[in-house]
Amino acid sequence: MTDVALLCLVYVSRAVVPMGDAELLSLLRQARAANSRVGITGLLLFRHGRFMQALEGPNHAVHGLYSRICLDPRHTDVTTLIKFRPEGRAFDGWSMGFANVDRIPESDRGGFSPFLQDDFDPAHWTGAPHRAVRLLQAFKEVDNLVEV
């Protein structure tokens, strides 16, 4: 894979400390600015201290960002769910879409995904990474993504 080839990487992680709205908004603003500079687009979901994020962009940019995320002391249990070379961007024009799933009423979350359940275990997803891609694409389709 060349450095300019498009790469999509989806991972999950857990926040080391609780993150409120102010911390999430700060993280989101920082990510959007940095991602725009290097051509990364994607979507970030947050629920009960866990993140699921899709990063897409040039191979070198995605690998560089993911390396920094893995070393970021705000994250732990960083687990790659899927890494592939897509035919095109799924989140074109989104420097980083975001949904705080905790803000979606419980009644509207039913049947969405195991990621939204309290007993989520990333090990169950590493064997079926297409689930992560489907979940992220479902959130992309939602017209009213919940901002922090």
TrEMBL record:
Location of the BLUF domain: 6-97
Organism superkingdom: Bacteria
PROSITE patterns per UniProt: BLUF
Pfam families assigned to the protein according to its UniProt record, in alphabetical order: BLUF
InterPro entries in alphabetical order: Acylphosphatase-like_dom_sf (IPR036046), BLUF_domain (IPR007024)
Name listed for the protein in its UniProt record: BLUF domain-containing protein
